[in-house]
Amino acid sequence: MRKFAVVTDSASDINHETAERLGIRVVPLHIMVDGRDYRDGVDIQIGEYLDLLGEQKELPRTSQPSPAEFVEVYRQLADEGYTDILSIHIARELSATIETPRFLARQMPDGMRLEVIDSYSATVGEGAMVLEAAAIAEAGGTIDEAIERVLAIRDTAKIYFIPDNLGNLVKGGRATRAQHLATSILNVKVVIEVGEGGRIEVAHKAKGLRNGIGFMVRQMARRSQEQGALTYYELHTRADRALAMLEKPLETNELDGTCAGVATIGPCIATHVGDGAVGILCYPSALHSPLLDGFQMFLDAPSSKPASA
What we know:
Layout: E1 5-9, H1 16-22, E2 24-27, E3 30-33, E4 36-39, H2 46-53, E5 61-63, H3 67-79, E6 84-89, H4 99-105, E7 113-118, H5 123-138, H6 143-156, E8 158-162, H7 167-171, H8 177-186, E9 188-194, E10 200-207, H9 209-227, E11 230-236, H10 240-252, E12 257-264, H11 267-273, E13 278-284
């Protein structure tokens, strides 16, 4: 048995096969659509959700798992003999999900250790931390080694992404209608970054998608000059054309980096960025475990919506 267990929420966008293979326990967030409560990744999958999302006039509401869902997972792990549990979650800036694990950590009985970490991120950013922690557990490492690795990734990782449009961010109150109208008329693409503590911030405004992608890759190249070789994931919501636009900039910029995979952004964050979004997560390769190489780690959905240039 591994020395410690790893728990996360479904905003990490790790696929079921990977979670099972690495022993990761995933607690699903909830999504309310047309009065129906879906458990993310249980009652609805990402491809189906993106189709449903495009039909909605009102933005679906996402909500945290119930305390009972967390208690059940932690109790199961205790029954299996685990005394150390590492629970890594979506940024508190984006969701209140982490508050329940934090409360439960203070209620643990003697002999049980529950360590809770705010990823300051979501989707692949959160997921990468979870995967690296699980790789340490798989290799027989300790929870303290995993905590050190996760915090190091949190301190050095960066996510950039470009929504196809700002419509869903407007519905969710993270952008104004005026911004949406201006960017639509002028074909301006807004590059978003996940900033300090998980805050969503505008990093750049570019004329067209190609220029926005160029900005993201240049930012990555600068980080590789500062941090050394990078591991990166490409992320999107069914935006194959936009992904293809990434290829040339990634090859021609002075970027010391290795792609670890392509991921579909899951329902929690896709609710806000909408279909056709594209982005990149990167962190130092020195913090990446080779145990994770060669597998599709994250959600995947067939493409159906090209991003506009």
